[in-house]
Write a structure and sequence with these properties.
Elements (H helix, E strand, L loop, with lengths): L6 E2 L5 H10 L4 H12 L14 H10 E2 L4 E7 L6 E6 L5 E9 L2 E5 L3 E3 L14 E4 L2 H15 L5 E4 L9 H11 L12 E5 L3 H8 L6 E5 L5 H7 L8 H15 L4 E6 L7 H11 L5 E6 L13 H13 L4 E3 L13 H18 L7
Parallel strand pairs: 1-2, 6-9, 9-10, 10-11, 11-12, 12-13, 13-14
Antiparallel strand pairs: 3-4, 4-5, 5-6, 7-8
Helix pairs in contact: 1-2, 4-5, 6-8, 9-10
The structure holds S-adenosyl-L-homocysteine.
Length: about 375
């Protein structure tokens, strides 16, 4: 079988793997063994699977490939130990993931797409548009590769890296089910958060999936007018439509939604903005995460001052809304979404053009 026709074995849930192995004439328990190698023992290739016969390993290697992401770069924050990974995908694309240590356990932030087509004004991931969706295996393997690299258990996963997860809906769902499958790493669904810029129909669809994950909505403004200035998706779905989708999500799942609100100096950070935000959060009992905007070179947004952020939080509190100011982890290591990938790609490109003039490759 030609290399390009091999199938992606790590993206197959256990029931599909059983069918595939049955078609190869293997006994059903072999599928369980293989799934364990891939998703519990975190094997990187078929050669490691010592209790499968050599013959079966060879057959698998002829028909399937095993997605194993390779770290191209790891940056470790001297401030808080946060680790930022840049992974190479089999087709040469790059994605970022971040590992953070909290008192309640280790958390990994993963990417769901290479690039993004949502166009949020302050976000570096979207500057070059969408390259492609990630497969379930490519999302899982960000967690697996980091688990292996640190040698420490990961207890929380947040889908808050590059990409819009609900724009890659089917792969995201397979990923969520496999990550929390009792036959795999079996993370608690409550410890998994998916963050969306607000695709209302997909939020309503997600509400029907019977998952106990946390949904975070990137609101960033409390009026349609202001939101449209920051997020083009606001032209497609109004805040009223989004709130209705959130209400349905809460009703069906019983899970409270988190609002994310990036504070941009002079844009969305007045007391009046806080009151409008509180009015949206109140009926749904939402928690609000306040994120001081992380300025990117390509845009001229500035952070609100410390005092303004605190005043915004106090104003929310007056209306009984809990707002947590997100600690900026890894500020010294290209913390903002998409920055590390972008810088590395740019330096690859610069290197290539330098090479033409006899320059030296640095990455
Ligand atoms: N597409 C998803 C995940 C994006 S990243 C979403 O929109 O929710 C996770 C969060 O970081 C989002 O709330 C996003 O709007 C925010 N974000 C992206 N770039 C940022 C920046 N430079 N400063 C502050 N927040 C940013």
């Amino acid at each position: 079988m030609a290399e390009g026709q091999k199938r992606d074995i790590k993206s197959l849930p256990l029931d599909q793997l059983k069918e595939e192995l049955a078609a190869l004439g293997e006994k059903p328990f072999r599928a369980g063994q293989l799934y364990r190698w891939l998703h519990v023992k975190l094997a990187r290739d078929f050669g490691e699977m010592s209790d499968l016969s050599r013959q079966l390993r060879e057959t698998l290697g002829e028909r399937y490939f095993c997605t194993s992401l390779q770290p191209v770069r790891v940056q470790v924050s001297r401030l808080d130990g946060t680790r930022k990974y840049l992974f190479a995908l089999p087709d040469g694309n790059l994605v970022e993931s971040v590992w953070m240590r909290y008192h309640h356990g280790n958390s990994v932030c993963i990417s769901s797409q290479v690039g993004c087509r949502m166009g949020c004004r302050f976000c570096a991931s979207t500057l070059d548009g969408l390259e492609r969706n990630l497969t379930p295996a490519e999302m899982l393997d960000q967690v697996y590769a980091i688990w292996l690299d640190t040698g420490e258990r990961v207890s929380n996963v947040v889908v808050m890296g590059s990409g819009e997860p609900l724009d890659n809906y089917d792969n995201l769902l397979t990923f969520l089910r496999m990550l929390t499958d009792e036959n795999g790493l079996h993370l608690s669904q409550r410890n998994v958060t998916v963050s969306t810029c607000g695709l209302a129909p997909q939020i309503r669809r997600l509400a029907e999936e019977k998952l106990q994950i946390t949904l975070a909505l990137s609101l960033h403004a409390a009026t349609d007018e202001k939101r449209k200035e920051l997020m083009p998706i606001a032209k497609r779905y109004s805040i009223a439509e989004l709130m209705e989708a959130c209400r349905i999500y809460y009703e069906k799942t019983g899970r409270r939604i988190t609002f994310e609100y990036s504070l941009v100096g002079g844009k969305n950070d007045t007391d009046q903005d806080a009151r409008a935000l509180a009015a949206l959060a109140r009926p749904l009992g939402c928690h609000v995460n306040l994120i001081p905007v992380n300025p990117i070179r390509e845009r001229d947004f500035v952070q609100s001052g410390r005092a303004r952020i605190k005043a915004f939080q106090n104003e929310l509190e007056k209306y009984k809304i809990n707002g947590t100011i997100r600690r900026e982890m890894g500020r010294d290591i290209d913390g903002a979404c998409g920055q590390l990938r972008r810088r590395t790609m740019q330096s690859f490109q610069a290197d290539r053009s330098q090479q033409d003039f006899g320059g030296r490759q640095t990455c």
